[in-house]
Every structure is written in structure tokens, then in C-alpha cells.
């Protein structure tokens, strides 16, 4: 009996995570905007993360359209990162005009907001990093305007350019839909595959064959472990199909 192996009932690993934001601009991008009468909703980071979690589970279930969407989002993330980096370089160049005799400290909020994170997909985390970058960019822009390095129109234009890049990413993710098909359906050329092609369009051959997947694509689950469809996460609500990529009014720029 002493030689029997020790049975360990290990659960899943968990890590408490949160994001601290200092500007109203970044906070509004996090929350998005609920649709109202005569005004469309705007998907926020919460809705984006929910879509990424569902997309990852769809890819696990061998849905080739989920794999195709992961590749599209990965490309869009890279484009968004480049756009924010270009803005950061412009702002850093502007702040370099400060005379050496003047020292400017960090522009920090005395009461920042700390938001909990519930992210199960790597492509979700990549957007969290971009939002943190935008928050830092907004702080620097507000400081540059406060110290007369840029005028109000430049402040608003650059803030809106960064916000638009993020909302364009989120808006693309909102279009994702789980197809309910697998690669076996396409190999069999059955009715489910034909219906998916008619509804979602043709897929690139390498994606359909599974030879090209996202860097963060999950392993494909065994057929016996598949669920019917990726369900929405209650902790990560989206705004629904009516959300649009519409610029919000910048309250920070009014301050």
C-alpha cells in the first residue's frame, strides 16, 4: 500500500489580473457604449474579449471559419499596434521640444480606475496591451496640450486617431460568428458545409486544410469533447449586433 502512487486532484491555474487606467478616453474604450434610441452602440474591450474567447473555442472545435477569423484579427492587431506606435512617435517628438531647463513629470491620475480582467484568449490580451498603450498615449497628449506644445485641435485629432484604431479592431471582431461546421464537413462536402459557404463565403485553401493557423490557435479538441457552440461569457458581455465603430465625444479634451 505504501508503494501506491499519490493521487493529486489538481484544478486549473488562475491568476488575479487587473488593468489600471488614468484617462476618460481609455475608460470609455473599455466600456464601449450601449445602444440607445437614435444612437448606435459601440463595442468596448469587454465585448471584444468575449468575441475572442468564443473565437478560440470555435477554433478548438475545428471550425475553419474560426481559424480564419483568428488570422484576420491577428493581422488587425498588428496594424492597430503600428498605428498607435506612429502616434506615440509623434507625441514623443513633440515632448522633446521642452527646454532642458524645464522638467515634466508623469501625468498621472490621482484616482485611476482599476478594472479586473477575465481573459481566456491570447488575442484578447494583445488588445488589453494596446488599450494600456493608448491610455499612456492619452496622458502624454493631455500633458503636451497643457504645456502649450500642441493646440486643442491637434490634441483632439490625435486622441481620436488612436481611439478610432482601437474601435476599428473591436468592430471587426464583433462581426465574428461561429459557423457550426468542422473540417470533416468540408471534406465530406455535406449540407452543413454548403450552407456555411453560402452564408460565410469561401475559405483560403490552406486555412480549410488546417495548414495555416494563427500563432495562438488552440489545439483542436477531440470530437467527443466538443460542445455544440461557443457560448457567451457572462462575465464578458458584448453590446450586441447593433454596435458600430462611431467616435465618442472626448471629455478629456474639454478639461
Defining key terms:
single chain, 255 residues, disordered C terminus
Q: Can you lay out the helices and strands and say which pair or pack?
A:
Layout: E1 18-21, H1 24-31, H2 45-60, H3 64-95, E2 113-116, H4 122-146, H5 152-174, H6 183-188, H7 191-200, H8 205-209
Antiparallel strand pairs: 1-2
Structure description:
By secondary structure, the protein is mainly alpha-helical. It has one domain (19-218). It is 49% helix and 3% strand. It has helices at residues 24-31, 45-60, 64-95, 122-146, 152-174, 183-188, 191-200, 205-209, and strands spanning 18-21, 113-116. Strands 1-2 form a two-stranded antiparallel ribbon. The protein is elongated. The chain starts with 17 loop residues before the first strand and ends in a 46-residue tail after the last helix. Residues 232-255 have low confidence and may be disordered.
Main β-sheet, in a few words?
Answer: 2 strands, antiparallel
Rounded to an integer in angstroms, the radius of gyration calculated over CA atoms is: 22 Å
Shape, per Cα inertia axes: elongated
SS-based class = mainly alpha
What does the average pLDDT come to?
A: 82
Brief summary:
This protein is mostly helical.
